[in-house]
Hints:
It is a single chain. The chain is an alpha/beta fold. The chain has two helices and eight strands, in the order H-H-E-E-E-E-E-E-E-E. The chain has helices at 2-23, 28-34; strands spanning 52-56, 59-61, 64-67, 72-77, 85-87, 124-128, 133-139, 142-151. It has a four-stranded mixed sheet with strand order 2-1-4-6, with no helix packed on it. A four-stranded mixed sheet has the order 3-8-7-5, with no helix packed on it. The chain is globular, with a radius of gyration of 25 Å. The chain starts with a helix and ends with a strand.
Amino acid sequence: MKRQFFIFGIFVLALALLILASCAPQTEESSKRESPEAPLTPPTLGAGDSNEIIITANGFEPATLTIRAGETVTWTNKNSQSHWPASAMHPTHTLYPGSGIEKCGTAEESTTFDACNPVAAGGRYSFTFAERGTWKYHDHLNPAKTGTIVVK
C-alpha cells in the first residue's frame, strides 16, 4: 500500500510540474527556437526601439543598423562638431539608388540619401529607406567615419 501511495505521489508531482512548465510565459527568443517555421531575424540595433543613430566624436553608433524597407532612420549629432551623413561613396554619394551630391539644393534633395548640409551639434537628419539592400554611408566632413544600414 505504501508503495502504491509513493508511486501515486510521484505521478501527481510530475503532472504538477508538467502543468507549471506549460503555463510558463515564453520569451520571443524561446518561441523562435521552438517554432521551426519561424525564421530567425537579426535584431534592430538602434537606440532603444527606434531607428536612431547617434553621431559622436568617434563616429556612428551603432555602426550597423538593420531595418525594414519603408522605415526612417534618424541621425542625431551628439558631438560638438558638425557632421554630414551621406550615402557612400565619398565624394559623390551615389551608392544608394537615386542618390547623388549633385541633387542637393534641387527638387530631388528629399529623395537622396544625403543630409546635403552639415548637421550642427544637437541637430538631426532623417531619411526613409525604400530600397532593400546593404547601404554603406559616411560622414562627408570626415570620410573615414562610416556606417551601414541593412534594409530587409
